[in-house]
Amino acid sequence: MTPTLQTFVGSLLQDNKTLVASYDLESLSPDLKNTLQLQTLRQPGIYNYALSPFSLDYRSVQRLCVINGMGVTLGDSLMGISALHAIKTINPKLHLTVLRPHTCQAYVEEIYQLAGNVIDELHFMPQELTSLAGYDALIDAGNQLFREDFATLEMHDFFLRHLGIAPESVSEEIKTNRWLRDGMPEQVSPLEGRYVLFNHRASTPLRDIPAAVLVEFVEHIYQQHGAPVAGFGKIDHPQFIDLSSRSRNTADFIAIIRHASKVYTCDSSALHIAAAFEVPTTAYFNAIKPALRAAYYPQCKSVDLGTERSVLLHQSEDSELLKEIENNYRRYLSAV
Predict the structure, then answer these.
(1) What are phi and psi of 230, to 5 degrees?
(2) How far apart are CA 259 and CA 248, in angstroms?
(3) DSSP 8-state assignment for residue 310
(4) For the chain, N or C: smaller number of CB within 10 Å?
(5) How far apart are CA 257 and CA 322, in angstroms?
(6) Equal CATH topology for 42-183 and 196-335
(7) Which tens digit of pLDDT belongs to each residue from 131-144?
(8) pLDDT (tens digit, 9 = 90+) per residue, 212-249?
């Protein structure tokens, strides 16, 4: 498979008949990839905003299929489902099918299972092109990372635009990921009494809160709130409680976040879950600008601790860059 196919702003077609996601092909050996007869998905009748901007009046759509939606990480998926929720708000009777890559992590797929109040049918790629017959509208949402405006638009607005909806036409309340609060049943708190949540890990080291400042950070949070500080992983502080063993799946993770009295988090899915449940949050951003992730979260205070070199990066293992970010955290903690 060529780099051009890997970074194509949409899904792929195998043998001119089968829909595949380039994400699913990443786990294949190079030799096996090279045997596949692949081409970009550019079929007439399938919308792809990155190839040709479009708008849709969803009031007149009865059956919609979103191909390769809505992201391969938990945070992106939460916001992507919010955009689908906007469609269902416009037309509650619309029947919505989502086709997903089949190799995503189980904890990511669980959020789609929890979205039954938004998604009517969930299927996995590969899928035959002929299976798409009978839909009023087909949208290819695949490979969002490589779409030009992915790095410049607030994420909810990005998803809305690529579903053919003017972002400004959608209420900011929907953009708080309200669908999750509306759809989740009541859950038991993991701890008795009040606690503050400190989530220091993201999906990439670049967005993590640096390990070297964790103990000092927990001390700061404890002094601010006078309550136990819960989180995930080992931090050597007497007031820190590791809840990793109680976070066995995505539903458990959500319960831990929703019952916290306050959340301190890096740029991660915890931010978007806390917004859904209106939990007061302070979020720390090391690369992506806060306005691209937390603009619609009224309960969130954002702190930008990135550098000029880290702006818009999604991942990096550059030790010098990570040290620069660590130093920004040290300066921040000494000032608060």
Answers:
(1) -100, 155
(2) 16
(3) T
(4) C
(5) 27
(6) yes
(7) 999 999 999 999 99
(8) 999 999 999 999 999 999 999 999 999 999 999 999 99
- Under CATH, what is the fold of the domain 196-335? Rossmann fold (3.40.50)
pLDDT, tens digit (0-9, with 9 covering 90-100), for 272-304: 999 999 999 999 999 999 999 999 999 999 999
pLDDT of residue 27: 84
Give the pLDDT confidence score for residue 311 in this predicted structure. Answer: 87
CA dihedral 201, 203, 205, 210 (to 10 degrees): -20
pTM greater than 0.85? yes
Instruction: Yes or no: say if 140 and 48 are a contact pair by the CB < 8 Å rule.
Output: yes
Taking the CA atoms of residue 308, residue 210, residue 244 and residue 297 in that order, the dihedral angle to the nearest 10 degrees is -40
The secondary element (H helix, E strand) that includes residue 262 is strand 262-266
Contacts for 38 with CB less than 8 Å, ≥ 6 apart: 1, 5, 12, 13, 14, 20
Pick the closest to residue 23 from 135, 124, 134, 148 (CA basis).
Answer: 124
Alpha carbon distances (Å) from 62 to 74, 93, 112: 28, 7, 21
Distance, in Å, from the CA atom of 203 to the CA atom of 268, rounded to the nearest integer, reads: 7
The amino acid that residue 301 corresponds to is K
The CATH class that applies to domain 42-183 reads alpha beta
From 61, 56, 81, 54, select the one nearest 70 (Cα to Cα): 81
> What is the total residue count of the chain?
336
Domain ranges across the chain: 42-183, 196-335
> What band does 2 get if pLDDT is binned at 50, 70 and 90?
confident
Helices (H) and strands (E) in the chain — how many of each? 11, 15
Neighbours of 238 (CB within 10 A): 8
Residue that the structure tokens 């608060």 belong to: 336
**Helix extents (H) in the chain:** 3-6, 22-25, 30-35, 74-90, 106-113, 155-162, 178-183, 214-225, 250-258, 269-276, 319-335
